[in-house]
Amino acid sequence: MSLRYHVVSIAAVLLALALGVVLGASALSGRVLGALTSDRDQLAGQVVALRGERDAADARLRATEGLVAAGGPSTVAGVLPGRGVAVLAAPDADPADVDAVAGLVESGGGRVTSRLALTDAALAPDQAEALRALVPRLLPAGAQLPTTTDTGSLTGSLLGSLLVARPGDAEEQATGPEATTALRALADGGFLRVPDALDPAPAEVALVVTGGRADPARDATLARLAGEVDRVGAGAVVAGRTGSGAVSAVRADPALRSGLSTVDALEGPASRVATVLALREQADGRAGTYGPLAGTFTPQPAAG
Question: At what angle do helices 269-283 and 95-107 cross, to 10 degrees?
Fold first, then answer.
């Protein structure tokens, strides 16, 4: 047998092997493709079904939220009879949330005695020294600052002495001119936004409204600020949108959590109603956590 015969034989064997592989792969590919097509069709059907369920759930949620929003004023009616509420908005607070809760406070028989907004500078670490130097100069007669260098606590103590007072302690509340002068000084320093017509009246409880931003350093400062406002007055509530770092900071601190009430998901009507109920709870000397993350929206106000 010649070399040529061997070469031809080997070539024939390789060709046959290649043809067999191709034919086998083609048959296998057909089966695999058929199986994948079937799986794709099944998954597509599941996606359509899940989308339908999602859309139905969204529709039910919208209907429920509409019902809660419509019934909000009647739900809170009489909850805050004659109670003064000082509203303080964080830099990231949504004005729609502030408007909605302020309206519900009035539906509950309460009065929004002041409506102010902190600026970014009030919570910025690089502005802490300037704020610490300013606060003692603005403190009204008879008020005392806590023995700390923490900016949030010092600012909260000052704002508390200007905006809120415990029932029966009205004589310790700053006078109107004192409060107006101090608040405008904070505004001139870039730490606060105040309305043009500023005439703060004493409030019993305070509401701190935040957005959904999370910044650990700023959130901790705002949480301690709210804690001092709570200490000075008859109570305070921190309410924020989903993701609010300030709400989380309060809930993570046992000392703050024991005094402050918190509400999450403030963008929803149920949480807005819960915020007003929580203000009454604070006025009654109790605290709690509310909203979807807390698993409940219904603090129980005391009778009377």
Answer: 50
What are 191-228's pLDDT values in tens digits?
999 998 787 788 999 999 999 999 999 999 999 999 99
Residue 37 has pLDDT above 50, yes or no: yes
What residue ranges in the chain does DSSP mark as E strands?
Answer: 84-89, 111-118, 192-193, 205-210, 236-240, 261-263, 289-290
- Is residue 159 in some structural domain? yes
**Do 279 and 133 share a structural domain?**
yes
Residue 301 has pLDDT above 50, yes or no: no
Structure tokens, 54: 């999602």
* Structural domain containing residue 250: 79-290
> How does DSSP classify residue 126?
G
Mark whether 31 and 122 lie in a shared domain: no
Q: Which residues are within 8 A (CB) of 276 and not within 5 positions of it... i.e. 6 or more apart? A: 76, 79, 80, 101, 104, 105, 107, 108, 110
pLDDT value, residue 302: 44
Burial class (CB in 10 A: 0-12, 13-18, 19+), 12: exposed
Whole-number pLDDT of residue 13: 57
Q: Kindly state the helix (H) or strand (E) to which residue 73 belongs, with its residue range.
A: helix 3-76
Query: What is the model's pTM?
Result: 0.79
Q: pLDDT tens for residues 138-157? A: 998 888 899 999 999 999 99
Please report where in the chains the tokens 């905006």 appear, as a residue: 163
Q: From start to end of 43-191, where are the E strands?
A: 84-89, 111-118
Coil, helix or strand at residue 287: coil
Cα separation of 34 and 45, whole Å? 17
DSSP per position, 148-175 = ---HHHHHHHHHHHHHB--TT-GGGSPP
Asked if 154 and 146 touch (Cβ cutoff 8 Å), the reply is yes
User: Quick one: 66 and 178 in the same domain?
Assistant: no
